[in-house]
Amino acid sequence: MVKSKGWNWEIVKEEKEEIWKNPSIESYYLLNRWKSQDKKYFLDLGSGLGRHSILFGKNGFNVSCFDISSDAIERTKNWATEENLKFDYKVGDMLKLPYDNESFDCIYCKNVISHTDTKGIKKIIKEIDRVMKHNSECYLTLLSKETWGFKQDTWPLIDENTRLKMEEGPEYKVPHFYADYNLIKELFKDFNIISIRQEIEYIEKTNGTSQSYHYHILIRKN
């Protein structure tokens, strides 16, 4: 199993920071879904700069922010203070979550658990299962093997599903796990899989356009 490594948030400053302070589209759907289910205890797993923590905190959820980056957690604290919101904050590794069993009834985890290898993914999923309450839900994303990154032969192959990203930026030398539909079904066989959706994002670059494919997965603990 590879050593965990998160985003280098310290290089994300000024105008680029604003991109990561806007909640993702699906978070608004989940907010309304989980409010209608009377869910209260929300874990922002891989919280980054806190965009989803702030959204859910403003809407009455009890928010726990978790990230491997102490810099990201500190910036989230500062933002939450400005918004007069009080959260629980923890810095750590997803391979061993610092929470009691059955602590949360909803978990949001976008573009986070892919930052490990196959053994790491399996361990993280077990940790997510452990901290979920009965009938709780978790929304997460995984990189698809259809995406351009998995096809980069110059990126070292760690195992049959994982490459080490060698592109300069906040994810430089961060491991990336990639899945397909059958692998997802196997990984989450112990959950009630509510939905699996694959989306394509077109990324415009100076040397052309690349395509990034992500699976969006909603699961419920049985």
Mean pLDDT: 93
Count of alpha and pi helical runs: 6
Question: What's the CATH superfamily of one domain, by name?
Answer: Vaccinia Virus protein VP39
Q: Structural class of the secondary elements?
A: alpha/beta
Strand elements, count: 10
Strand percent estimate: 25-35%
Percent helix:
25-40%
Structure, explained:
The protein is 27% helix and 32% strand. With 222 residues, it is an alpha/beta fold. The chain has a domain at 15-142 and 177-197 and 216-220: Vaccinia Virus protein VP39 (Rossmann fold, 3-Layer(aba) Sandwich). Strands 1, 2, 3, 4, 5, 6, 7, 8, 9 and 10 form a ten-stranded mixed β-sheet that branches. Strand 6 (157-159) and strand 7 (162-164) form a beta hairpin. The longest helix has 14 residues, at 118-131. The radius of gyration is 17 Å and the shape is globular. It starts with 13 loop residues before the first helix and ends with a strand. The model has no long low-confidence stretch (mean pLDDT 93).
Q: Topology of this structure?
A:
Elements lengths: L13 H6 L5 H12 L4 E5 L5 H8 L3 E6 L2 H13 L5 E4 L12 E6 L8 H14 E13 L12 E3 L2 E3 L10 E5 L1 H7 L4 E14 L2 E13 L2
Parallel strand pairs: 1-2, 1-4, 2-3, 4-5, 5-8
Antiparallel strand pairs: 5-10, 6-7, 7-8, 9-10
Quick synopsis:
27% of the residues lie in helices and 32% in strands.
Tags for this model:
single chain; 222 residues; alpha/beta; Rossmann fold; 10 strands; 27% helix; globular
